[in-house]
Fold this sequence. Notes:
The complex is a heterodimer. By secondary structure, chain A is an all-alpha fold.
Amino acid sequence: MKTSATDLELAIQMDEAARVAHELRLKRDRQERNGRILKHIFLIIVSCVMLYPLFWLLASSFKPENEIFGSLTLWPSEFQFENYTKGWYALPMSFTVFYVNSAIVTGLSVIGNLVSCSFAAYAFARLNFTGRSFFFALMMMTLMIPYHVVLIPQYVQFLNLGWVDTYLPLVVPRFLASDAFFIFLMVQFFRQLPRELDEAAMIDGCSPFKIYWAIILPLSLPAMGTAAIFSLIWVWEDFLAPLIYLNDIKSYTVPLALRLFLDQEGQSAYGQMFAMSVLSLVPVVIFFVLFQKLIVRGIATSGMK
Amino acid sequence: MKRFFARNAPAYVFLLPWLIGFFLLALGPILASLYLSFTRYDMVSAPRWIGWGNYEYMFTRDRRFWKALEVTFTYVALAVPARLIMALGVAMLLDKGLRTIGLYRAIFYLPSLLGASIAIAILWRQLFAADGVVNQVLAMVGIQGASWITDPDTSLYTLVVLAMWQFGSPMLIFLAGLRGIPRDLYEAAEIDGTPRWRQFTRITLPLLAPVIFFNLVLQTIDSFKTFSSAFIISNGTGAPADSLLFYTVYLFNEAFKFFRMGYASALAWFLLVIIATFTAIAFFTSKYWVHYENERD
Lengths: 305, 297
């Protein structure tokens, strides 16, 4: 029967075609998998190189003094917890003082940034007023002004006010929205909220403050969170402003204290210096691990730092 | 008049903290430092007007000023491209075909958060010390390493490496940009048999150009402001042999070590001019990278 023979042939051909296609797909999958594995290997190597300095710092903070240099190993022969206990009291003041100081400055600064910047951002993003674009342009311009340019007159100003050697020069500017970057970040976010919300609330007789407090803020928790974390980390690591305004060791923040270790280098104990360095990074790392998503999204949307 | 007031009052109440800050902490000080830049001022006696004296000295006689410019521009010219190439390369690896990019992204971003801290600057000094980690690694492959930090010929490179280490934030911005490129473009190119590097030069680079440019400007401005790490690694002086005399470090020392406030103000103003130039470029090209989804007016 001729017809069935061609049918059979056709069936065999189709089967063959399917087999070839299947093999091609397998081959492509295999190539892709190999490519992926290669990529992973490469990325893992890069990760190790990136992280090695941090792990070396961590390991050295536990090593006996004579093991720190001249060894690449990340495992101390014996764990020297003394580096931490001694390091904590190695400077004329204990690190308890420095951490309390840093916590005060950082805590107040974060609050200041959140309040003042969200106020300004709300005005820029949601309210209509005469001079809005003008002031917005000014605000964007302040973003680029290097701190060094305003530093000297600010110092003279604060000196005349008798604020040098207090935390006021570090904290008060933050209550005046001096970190304009956060205004920018919040404006970006506030603008994306639907206008209908404000309009409906306005018709219901809500005041602008009520709208800010009851509608905008609750909807903007991710943006507020991002701003809080960034300002926390930046203030915590801030070095220049404390360096200028804090002269008395009693008021030193953690970064200034770490620098004291360097000044007494030579006689100093590297293990202790590393131990205290590790501790100074711990809050940053913890916040990073906890709020990684917010941080990543904040950078991707605002495009900064 | 009354209606004008009623319409604007709430907004200005919200704006008030920023407005006060703007006048007292930004505009006022900027004008004050412009004035101071034409004076001699040591903070003990009142500022004394000397006209263009500071600027004249700066441009014609101050060798350290030129050295600071040289160090800073060299640093910017090396660190920015190094960081951006690293960032783009890794972003492209992470962008395609990997499902578990979260962990890598976190690992690569972490140094950007830590990098500005004093702890890392301290660590860097030790890594590149004569008996430090870097030289031990080099010794394993039989290379006799230099004394990186104390040798004026190499000290700047240790900071360039530190800058490279912090490629995380441009990487994240690149990743966001890469996400915006339509996948079908690559698929079409794949079907046409376009080789990978051509896909890169013909699709990725052109479509990513605004993001690349944005990152370039941002990182350039940022690099001009580098201070803490240079200050710590150079012992606060720009040593060795002024090879780490970053512009900001020089300015700081003139102002707060030698109390030449007038001269330091002139330095500060010149820095503002440099950065303003770069920002102006960014501003006039901003239409390529900023767009608000809910823009009404």
